[in-house]
Amino acid sequence: MWPLPWRRWRYRSRVSGTVLARCWEAPAPAARRPWVEQRFLVCDAEMSSLDVNEGELLSLGWVAVDGGRVNLASASHCLIATTGSVGQSAGIHQLRDCDLEQAGSEADAIDRLCEAARGRVLVFHHAPLDLTYLNRASQRHFGAPLLLPYLDTLAMEKRYRDRVGQAEHNGGLNLTACRRRYGLPDYPAHNALVDALATAELLLAIASHRGGVDREGRSKPARLKDLR
Amino acid sequence: MSSADQHEPASGSRAISPELQSLVDFLGQTLPFNELDPDTLRASAADMEVIYHRQGERLVTGDGSGLRVVRSGAIDLRDGQNKLLDRLGEGESFHLERLNQAHSEGVTATVIEDTLLYHLPNHRYLALREAHRDFDRYFHTQRSRRLRRAARYESQPHAMTQAVASVMTSDLLTVRPDTPISETARAMTARRVSSVFVMDGETLAGIVTDRDLRERVLAADRSPETATRDIMTADVRWLQAEASLFEALLTMTRYGCHHLPVLRDNKLCGVVTTSDLMLARQDDPVFLVQHIYRQEEVAGIQSLLQGVPNLMVQWVNTGIRARQVSRVLTAISDAVTVRLLQIAEARLGPPPVPYCWAGFGSQGRQEQLLGADQDNGLIIDNSMGEEHADYFQRLAQSVCDGLDTCGYPYCNGNVMAMNPEWRLPLAQWQEKVRSWTRTPTPDAVMRVSIFFDLRAIHGDASLCEQLQQTMLSASSDNTIFLAALAQNALDNPAPLGIFRRFVVDRDGQHRDSLDLKKHGVMPITDIVRLHALGHRVAAVNTDERLLALEQAGALAKVDARNLTDALHCLQRLRLQNHVEQQLRGEKVSNFLNPRNLSKMAREQLRDAFSIIHDAQAGVRLRFRQGMG
């Protein structure tokens, strides 16, 4: 895979002047620096189907991680107006058509997300699904995919488990199961924002465990590149 | 500092996203965030950061000060000498910098289980304290003051404050002023009442009682045909329907009458009598104690005492304090003991030489609660001869058996007058005390801790006083003995970590529960007894000992008060636990699952344990210096 700046090149004129272009101007993450120096935006998307050809984005939630801490003031949630009915997924995500009446457009949501993402590394739990939807939306809105740096807590955890010979499959890698392994509490409700916060806490936990603690009880944070 | 901090809007203009209500709900259940209104709570949640700490990490003050709330995991707080101050779990909060100000040597917070924290930055924390009085109060009142408020809390309701209307008889017998006395008497007999009201139309003209019939008719040789008007008491004392039973009692006592008419809107609506008042006072322990003294058989006492657990529930529910309840329960067991002794003396004949029946332990200290076993002994006059041994053996046996029948079970440690070791002439007791204090073996120290809390229950109290004097003079200057006693008091460290399940009993029927008596009340009484012996304080009741120690300058006022409050707090929790067990139909015990406590009660319990911990540190310093 080509590095991000190279892949962005062909879209540069299309996105010119948009929020996305300003995101692209930010310096690349410093992979060799301690992870706590990197700023993150942890996101979760809810959609009406797991199949990107059938489904639509219903809501986005995100929360910022600065200096190794989740900043709750940054927690944001946007509902997205859909063209079809919510259908079956409503049962899972507790969104109903009537809730969606207060919803904004997909374009607004993407704009706001990019605004919040400037200078940050995106984080998802199971990034491929969310990014497929987000890139489609970005393509519609900016004429280009997001092409932003990101981490995937599911992939991080899977690689780690495989490496230490405790491979987890399917259910063992879902958000709740991963959190339990790090002693994090279960959250009863689910929406894009609660899941984004849950993912952010999982990021903190995984990152702490990739680093060390010295004899005086000081934590030694891992480098950003060691999180993967 | 992060960019979000730099661009913080003014306080109050923000709130956390409604999608994170579950986080707000969690905060709203913790102290003291439960004091905040929903809007402030949402704004405060937005002010917070979430931090994750790995096991083994040590939190330092440099990490940005402020209030930290444990969301999950566990954290130990230790002082400069690495002594455990507290173990915090879910929903509990701490402010490291404030703790450091309070402890000169510095406090460290060590993560003992991976922990997720909510951190409220210091300026936000201070702003909240500034703006919200109840929130502030939680912090600026020190933990001991918080505890004192809880210990002194008292609600007012009492049976004697209820209105007379609630107990009066409203089905009244009335006669006209010209009704002949004979007819009035027949009406009273038919209705089985002892008083009748003489009504002139709607107006109450007077009252006639059984006594008037005796004194003003029979004794005065009046004709039964006389009009009732001629023998009635015209100047009638009466009460308003809203008057309290207490006022009724006062009026009756003051004017020597047993019947009081009750008026509502100036019309007669009922009558209240002394027996109505007695019925209303059924929960009065005086009533019970009087009845105990009237019993001629053990069985009678036993059946009277069966009502005590229910009475205790009533006393607690009407807001009587733990200290008073334990005094009353002790008064009841004293009465039972005295009555059993009187019954035994009546059967065995008068004692051949003087004796004193002494109560030990909680009965001695007047701090008994339900379920206490018996701790007692006999101090017999030195003139006792061998031929008298049989009398006292039979006396003791019959009283101890009687106590067991009445619900005060035999003592496991055999500290009972029926045991010949605890039934001795004064001189032998004195020699025993001297030998215990000369050679403080662990067994002797254990006996001493029961024995030194002694109080004369019945018989010649001077025997008990002489023994007490011997105890005080044998122990107060004996540093080796006091050091042994101090070790005993330190053997039961305050279980600061109970809320994390580490210190509670791990096995058997009482798994995961805490013994409030063993871990709470006993350490306090041990510490206070030690100080009392060290300063020749003759008082036995723990409150009285503390007061005497405070007045003698042996304990700082604040330490004495803190121990008093901690004891009352523990006794109150024990008592509440007993009440709940009683209401569930369980046998009372001192075991309590800390998880079943309310947040406030848990905080108070923790405060009480912190005070015990501090007091134990004081004991170590004072009595075990140089002993390791």
Automatic annotation (TrEMBL), chain A:
GO biological process terms held by the UniProt record: DNA metabolic process
InterPro entries linked to this entry: Ribonucl_H, RNaseH-like_sf, RNaseH_sf
Domain Exonuclease residues, every copy: 39-212
One function term, GO molecular function aspect: 3'-5' exonuclease activity
Transmembrane segments: none
This protein's UniProt keywords: Exonuclease, Hydrolase, Nuclease
Keyword Ribonucleoprotein among record annotations: no
Top-level division of the source organism's lineage: Bacteria
GO cellular component: cytosol
Record SMART domains: EXOIII (SM00479)
Cited CDD domains: DEDDh (cd06127)
Protein name, entry field: 3'-5' exonuclease
High-level lineage: Bacteria, Pseudomonadati, Pseudomonadota, Gammaproteobacteria, Cellvibrionales
From TrEMBL, chain B:
Domain annotation CBS: ranges: 168-225, 232-288
PROSITE patterns per record: CBS
Taxonomic superkingdom: Bacteria
UniProt keyword list: CBS domain
SUPFAM superfamilies in the cross-refs: cAMP-binding domain-like (SSF51206), CBS-domain pair (SSF54631)
Family matches, as SMART domains: CBS
Molecular-function annotations in GO: [protein-PII] uridylyltransferase activity
UniProt-listed CDD domains: CAP_ED, CBS_pair_CAP-ED_NT_Pol-beta-like_DUF294_assoc, NT_GlnE_GlnD_like
This protein's name: Cyclic nucleotide-binding/CBS domain-containing protein
